[in-house]
Amino acid sequence: MSRFIEVPARMLPPETLEALLEAFVTRQGYDTTDTGEGMRGWVAELKQQLERSELIIAHDLELEMTEVMTLAQWRSFGRDLGDDEEEGDLV
User: Fold this and answer.
1) Segments of the chain scoring below 70 in pLDDT
2) CA angle 64–43–26, rounded 5-degree value
3) Which positions are tagged coiled coil (predicted)?
4) Strand partners, 56
């Protein structure tokens, strides 16, 4: 069984999706003053990126954490994890 699963955005309650996207904006260091709508503007943009499959929502079954990631972040994370597993570094 895989440790990670992709969660379709449509399966999340709206308030949960909003919270995940707001956490992503904050974690990525986006300037919420550079759009006329602040955080709301970034969340709307991120929803569009989810629809275009430019972002994914991934759930870590082991840590029980859910994160929004760019495809580049996901690939990098997945590749790093695979490397660690091959070397036996993960417990």
Assistant:
1) 1, 32-36, 77-91
2) 60
3) none
4) 69
> What local confidence, expressed as pLDDT, does residue 87 receive?
43
The Cα 22–Cα 46 span in angstroms is 9
CA angle centred on 83, ends 78 and 63, rounded to 5°: 50
Q: How far apart are CA 17 and CA 15, in angstroms?
A: 5
Q: What is the CA radius of gyration of the chain?
A: 15
Q: Is 24 exposed, middle or buried (0-12, 13-18, 19+ CB in 10 A)?
A: buried
Q: What is the pLDDT of residue 72?
A: 84
User: H-helix or E-strand containing 65?
Assistant: strand 65-70
C-alpha–C-alpha distance, residues 79 and 81, integer Å: 5
> CB–CB of 59/2 below 8 Å?
no
Q: Which residues contact 6 (CB under 8 A, 6 or more apart)?
A: 56, 57, 58, 59
